[in-house]
Design brief:
Blueprint (H helix, E strand, L loop, with lengths): L1 H34 L8 E5 L5 H10 L6 H10 L9 E5 L5 H10 L4 E5 L6 H10 L12 H7 L15 E5 L4 H21 L10 H14 L6 H13 L7 H6 L10 H5 L22 H8 L8 E4 L7 E4 L2 H11 L5
Antiparallel strand pairs: 1-2, 3-4, 5-6
Helix pairs in contact: 1-3, 2-3, 7-12, 8-9, 8-12, 9-12
């Protein structure tokens, strides 16, 4: 028995050595493929869609002549436990990069970031238009009503106007409109709650939502940032004295198919948003309010002003008055151009 084993031992050793050589050879080939610099003269972007596999990625790289041996690529991904951890998104392949670095980036989710900006003063309709025109965003909410959108976002029964924070958001290709609006909604809630907790005492707001409504008006009325606390103080004075807010942006918001001109008949046409015919705040915000407008609303200037009118010179500045007589004089001078 031992003689037979001793005779077979050299054969076993030889086979083992051959297998080791084969393993070493292919390991070296795989390592070389995965760590060699890719032959690129300039950077290229690839899009790895949700639900795609490492095989999908391999085929994409072959199409771009960036991968020769698919099996080596797949083996590397399996050995390093990367095949099931690749994150969807858009990635940059740069000159000098290797396939191993690409997989590392995709596991880490180092996707290309794009910017989308929601601007202060935008209405919800304008927000949706910007979102739906962005080629990097996957649309799930197109064609739905406001009520349906808010239900999908998890806020059924809420009016969408003013609920989303105006900011520049860094997004990756493939993000859904649902995901983006969810982020913007939460951002607004966080900022509004933070500002609400630090508000001045004895303001005429029962809830933070009422403050947001006035902040949206302040946002639309204040083209000059330094005037925001003053305009907020003026509107707070009107609310305290049960004086109508009489602000054009709310009237405009309530006009269907607004053509850019506000007419005297519009000021007399009673709608829930006509602050010339109704007392108090309108039922909802009329636009997106930025943090400065929210802060100004919750920290208004202590002033006796009740009226203001634009200079009309394109600067966005206003003339403020404490009484109707002085206000009429300012209107004659700066709007009616009576001297």
């Amino acid at each position: 028995m031992f003689k037979s084993f001793n005779k077979a031992l050299p054969v076993v050793v030889a086979i083992a050595c051959i297998l080791l050589v084969i393993v070493f050879y292919f390991s070296a080939k795989i390592y070389s493929q995965m760590h060699s610099e890719l032959k690129l003269s300039q950077s290229e972007n690839i899009i790895f869609s949700r639900g795609s596999s490492i095989r999908t990625l391999a085929n994409l790289l072959i199409e771009k002549d960036l991968l020769e041996q698919k099996n080596y690529f797949l083996i590397w991904g399996k050995i390093n436990r990367q095949e099931t951890r690749l994150q969807a998104g858009e990635y940059i392949i740069s000159p000098g990069m290797s396939l191993a670095e690409l997989l590392d980036n995709m596991v880490a989710g180092n996707v290309v970031k794009h910017n989308i900006t929601l601007i202060e003063g935008f209405t919800f309709r304008q927000v949706l238009k910007v979102v739906q025109q962005d080629p990097n965003i996957t649309l799930e909410l197109a064609g739905l009503s406001d009520e349906e959108i808010m239900k999908i976002l998890g806020h059924e029964g809420e009016h969408p106007e003013g609920r989303f924070y105006p900011d520049t958001y860094h997004i990756s290709r493939g993000i859904t409109d649902t995901e983006l609006l969810t982020r913007a909604y939460k951002r607004m809630q966080d900022i509004l709650e933070e500002e609400w907790q630090q508000r001045e005492e004895n303001l005429p707001f029962k809830t933070s939502y009422e403050a947001l409504i006035l902040a949206s008006i302040v946002e639309k009325e204040s083209a000059v940032a330094t005037e925001r606390p003053l305009i907020a103080g003026l509107f707070v004075n009107r609310l305290r004295t049960r004086m109508r807010l009489q602000t054009d942006p709310t009237v405009i918001y309530g006009i269907k198919n607004y053509d850019g001109n506000i007419r005297f008949k519009d000021l007399r046409n009673d709608t829930p948003y006509n602050t010339y015919t109704r007392y108090g705040l309108p039922p909802t915000p009329i636009a997106l309010a930025g943090r400065e407008a929210i802060h100004a609303t919750l920290h208004p200037d202590k002033t006796e002003y009740l009226y203001f009118v634009a200079y009309g010179d394109g600067s966005g500045r206003h003339v403020f008055s404490t009484n109707l007589k002085d206000h009429e004089k300012a209107v004659d001078k700066y709007q009616r151009k009576k001297h």
